[in-house]
Amino acid sequence: MTSVVEVASYLPPRSISLTELFEKLSLDYNADVYERYFGFQQIRQDPGGNLAEQLCAAASRLTWLRGREHLVRYVVYAPTIQSSAPYPGNPVLETCLALGLERALPFSLSQHACASALLAIDTCGRLLASDGEPDALALILTGEKTFTPVAQVVENSAVMGEGIAAVLVRAGGERDRMLSYASRTLGEFHEGPFLTPELDAEFQRSYTTTFAEVIHAALAHAGLTADDVTLVLAHNVNRMSWMRVLLQSGLPKDRLFLDNQRTLGHCFGADPFLSLQAATAAGRLREGDYYVMTASGLGSTTAAMVFQH
């Protein structure tokens, strides 16, 4: 059984308001609507930093990794955007070298967009289990730079911020154990933010139902129901859409953890792991509690993963 050993993060110190962001991007969007109804207020950005520096900053804060670098078998970067850094940079390889992880196999998983980090957890758990080395580890890195305008705002859906999560996983373990994973890809919506008005309307109709079905599939595979869930660690998109998902899935509103959304925005695949850090620090999870990590990637893949704290 796969478990999360530790989560660390890097958040740029500079915050920018939605008004400032929309003006910079020359977007004629109403910041009040995004704040009052969608749940966003500001995001983090590090214009002068590069991705490799941010990945290293997050991973270097993993206390469990120190002295165990030789046990890391895989280093997986799980971005939403396939071209996550300007050519010819290789942020994953640069991070491995900087952290002394030369023995690890580095690769990327981006096929599920913002849900790729959950795919990486499942993939690394399977790889580690098949290797048969009980002490072996995998390092998963997720989150990215918002270095292009299209990577900063998805209209009526999300405002993206910079933030990196570093997740150390192993096969076995007693804390934050992954009990199940479910995902579903609707390939007809593969054009993501560039859907025709007709396809976009169809996507909006199917989104809520699909998300609720995936959450219930993950819970059923874990032998649980909605009543057993302490928290849903959400990906930080339009709050109104989350209210519809909760209603259809039978989850009470007080189980939804979106505390980071207002100040961090949507940090791509890092959202549920940043939320795990915040929820744990706030005492929202006790030993034995069940929680669900969720993500939805443009393209369109929806995923849910159940853990026991």
Automatic annotation (TrEMBL):
Keywords: Acyltransferase, Transferase. It is an enzyme of class 2 (transferase). Residues 219-308 form the Beta-ketoacyl-[acyl-carrier-protein] synthase III C-terminal domain. It comes from the Bacteria. One of its GO terms (molecular function) is beta-ketoacyl-acyl-carrier-protein synthase III activity. Signal peptide: none annotated. Pfam families: ACP_syn_III_C. One of its GO terms (biological process) is secondary metabolite biosynthetic process. This is 3-oxoacyl-[acyl-carrier-protein] synthase-3. It comes from Allocatelliglobosispora scoriae.
